[in-house]
Each structure stands twice: as structure tokens, then as C-alpha cells.
């Protein structure tokens, strides 16, 4: 089965937290939604669509009566993930397709409610540690019976078509790149965008209005610069961004440790790479600069930020820059405000 089409069953353990019963493909949180996070923020039965990066999902939360669970009920979630590349119109076609699969998820949930021995398996961890595949602890007969049902629904959910449009070549993809010094919070920032995205859905009754769709599009195209875009110098320091990454950027998010002046110095050096490119080619692109606030540490003031960037050169290039001081782990409203600024500059 193609990895473009993935089915997972997860559940919430009152001691261990979110856990995976079974998934037909290994999930990578850099590419896929963090199902544990979604499960942590959800407790209402029903189905909802959630989109993140390359994959779009339809999720169904349901409860099973259990003599082993606190409160007498187990909370489970069935998630079907699919790459938007299956569809020509990613915004409408994939959304409507996923919604059309709600009855299949509901029927699958009904079968799991009646599946003998399931609740006992969910509490069979002898050492009470998380498993990425709790099904591996089951008997051979249980596995066989479960997978017969599971694979049947995976086949029902998977589109009986090939990918209808070719993915853009890598050199044609437009991205908003996140970069900055090590341990500044880049990965935390990108992962928290997923949580913010889901909470926006939940607070709006899971409605995907135009504002949410535009937000989705931007989030789906935010990416941390990887080794493919960074060249190491002789001393092993990442100092040069490959030109093709700069050419394909529609914006940059530069994150540094707001409590560390050395982090700021390194950030300024990285910013010069973007500024020099802009001066050489006359490219316009917005740069969002985030000073990540860490608890118990004094943050660098905004005045100090602007004093250390050459505003005259910025004006000459037509490069827009905005600074936000944010705890990227917890200050969701400020993150949304920062992303809105970036979005306004791009569109």
C-alpha cells in the first residue's frame, strides 16, 4: 500500500497519555501531524478534518466501554492521512474527499467497539511504557483478525485513482524557510504551529473558512532549512545558504535565543546572507525575526534588535523586516500575530 495513504488507530492511556495501537506506516513528525497532540486536545466524539504540511487527515474520536479504564471508558481515534498531491484542487477536492469518508470511519469504530479483547490489550503493557505499536503485544489470532478488518477499511478509504497531477519539481517549490542558530527553538516553533493550527479549528467549531485555508497554505509551506540548503565551511559552521533555496524562498523566519547575545550575533550574520542576496538580485521578500524567550532568562530588547540591523540597507533593498519577542513553546496568540504579519507581506 502506498505511503501516500495511511491509516492509524491511536488511543489515550490515562497513565501514559497518547499511544498508538497500530499504523500501517511509520509516522515522522517532521512530515506528518502529531496524532498524540491532536488526541490530547480532543475529547468530543465525532469526525473532523485536520491538515498539516504534505498530509491532510480525517479523524474520528470515539469511546469504548471498558472495565480496565478509569471512568469505565477508553478514548480512541481513527486517523486517515492522505497526501494532497492526489488531487488537482488541493483546497476543495481533498477536503470533500475526506469528509465523504466519515461514514467509513464511523463503521470502522463500531466494529472496534465490538472487537473482543481490545480493551484488555490496551492495558496489557507489563512495564507501562509507551509503544508505537501496541498491536505487537497481541496474540497471533488477535493480530490476524484485527488486520483483516483494518486492511479492509484502508482499502475502502484509499482513492482508487493514481495521482492526478505531477508534483512540482523541487526547484519550482516556493517555501518560507526557518533558520537560525542551534538550540534557538526552530523545531519547537514549527511543531507548535501544528498545535496552534488545530486549536484554531477547534475554537471555530472545526470550520475551515477562507482565513483558515490561507493559514493552512502558509503553514504547509514553512520548512526548516536542512543540510541540502546549508553549506558547511572548513570550521564546520553553517555559514552559506545555497542559492537555489534563496531563489525559491517567498519569505524567511529567523529565530534566535532572545536571552543570549552570542545567539543574536550569529543571527545577524545569517541575516546578512539574505540581505546580500536581496541587494545583488533586487529580490523582495519579508523576513520575520523571532526572539525566542526562555523562562527565567532576560530577553534582548527590541531596540537592541533594530540597532544591530542596517536599516538603510534594508530600505535600499525594499526588504521588510519585523521583530517579535515570543516564547515559541507557549505564546500561541503571539505566534498567530507574527504569522499574520508574514502572510500579509506575501499576499
UniProtKB/TrEMBL annotation:
Stored SUPFAM superfamilies: P-loop containing nucleoside triphosphate hydrolases (SSF52540)
Record keywords: GTP-binding, Nucleotide-binding
Statement: the UniProt record of this protein carries the keyword GTP-binding: yes
Transmembrane segments: none
One GO molecular-function entry: GTP binding
Name recorded for this polypeptide: Uncharacterized protein
Amino acid at each position: 500500500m502506498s505511503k501516500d495513504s495511511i491509516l492509524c488507530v491511536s488511543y489515550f492511556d490515562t497513565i501514559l497519555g497518547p499511544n498508538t495501537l497500530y499504523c500501517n506506516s511509520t509516522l515522522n513528525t517532521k512530515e506528518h501531524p502529531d496524532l498524540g497532540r491532536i488526541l490530547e486536545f480532543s475529547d468530543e466524539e465525532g469526525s473532523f478534518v485536520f491538515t498539516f504540511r504534505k498530509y491532510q487527515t480525517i479523524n474520528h474520536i470515539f469511546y469504548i466501554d471498558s472495565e480496565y479504564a478509569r471512568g469505565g471508558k477508553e478514548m480512541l481515534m481513527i486517523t486517515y492521512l492522505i497526501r494532497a498531491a492526489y488531487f488537482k484542487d488541493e483546497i476543495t477536492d481533498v477536503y470533500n474527499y475526506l469528509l465523504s469518508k466519515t461514514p467509513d470511519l464511523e463503521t470502522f469504530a463500531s466494529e472496534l467497539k465490538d472487537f473482543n479483547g481490545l480493551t484488555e490489550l490496551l492495558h496489557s503493557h507489563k512495564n507501562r511504557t509507551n509503544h508505537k505499536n501496541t498491536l505487537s503485544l497481541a496474540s497471533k489470532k488477535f493480530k490476524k483478525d484485527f488486520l483483516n478488518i483494518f486492511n479492509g477499511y484502508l482499502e475502502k478509504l484509499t482513492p482508487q485513482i493514481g495521482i492526478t497531477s505531477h508534483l512540482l519539481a523541487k526547484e519550482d517549490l516556493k517555501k518560507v524557510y526557518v533558520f537560525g542558530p542551534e538550540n534557538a527553538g526552530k523545531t519547537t516553533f514549527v511543531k507548535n504551529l501544528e498545535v496552534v493550527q488545530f486549536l484554531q479549528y477547534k475554537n471555530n467549531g472545526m470550520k475551515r473558512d477562507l482565513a483558515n485555508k490561507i493559514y493552512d497554505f502558509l503553514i504547509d509551506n514553512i520548512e526548516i532549512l536542512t543540510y541540502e540548503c546549508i553549506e558547511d565551511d572548513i570550521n564546520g559552521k553553517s555559514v552559506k545558504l545555497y542559492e537555489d533555496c534563496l531563489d525559491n524562498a517567498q519569505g524567511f523566519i529567523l529565530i534566535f535565543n532572545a536571552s543570549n547575545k552570542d545567539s543574536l550575533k550569529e543571527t545577524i550574520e545569517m541575516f546578512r546572507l539574505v540581505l546580500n542576496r536581496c541587494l545583488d538580485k533586487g529580490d523582495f521578500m519579508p523576513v520575520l525575526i523571532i526572539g525566542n524567550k526562555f523562562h527565567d532568562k532576560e530577553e534582548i530588547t527590541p531596540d537592541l534588535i533594530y540597532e544591530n540591523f542596517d536599516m538603510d540597507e534594508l530600505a535600499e533593498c525594499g526588504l521588510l523586516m519585523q521583530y517579535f519577542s515570543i516564547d515559541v513553546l507557549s505564546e500561541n496568540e503571539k505566534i498567530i500575530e507574527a504569522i499574520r504579519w508574514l502572510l500579509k507581506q506575501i499576499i
